[in-house]
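Section 5: illustrative case.
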């Protein structure tokens, strides 16, 4: 774990090893007990493709499955 401190202008400098691992763009998410920095991918679509590369079903199959589960959950 590393630390970072705000400068006099309110800027936060992340340690080099953090920037090298996660990149240089982040979303700031406010939580009830603090904040979280979420890295923003340079190519969001490429990140999604790699995240779901092992999914074997088509979008239509996933849609039908979700619809069936929703109907089942609604008691139909």
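Designed sequence:
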């Amino acid at each position: 774990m590393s630390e970072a401190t705000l400068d006099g202008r309110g800027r936060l400098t992340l340690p080099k090893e953090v920037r090298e691992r996660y990149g240089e763009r982040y979303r700031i998410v406010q939580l009830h007990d603090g904040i979280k920095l979420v890295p923003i991918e340079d190519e969001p679509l490429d990140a999604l493709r790699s995240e779901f590369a092992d999914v074997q079903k088509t979008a239509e199959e996933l849609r039908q499955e979700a619809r069936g589960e929703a109907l089942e959950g609604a008691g139909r």
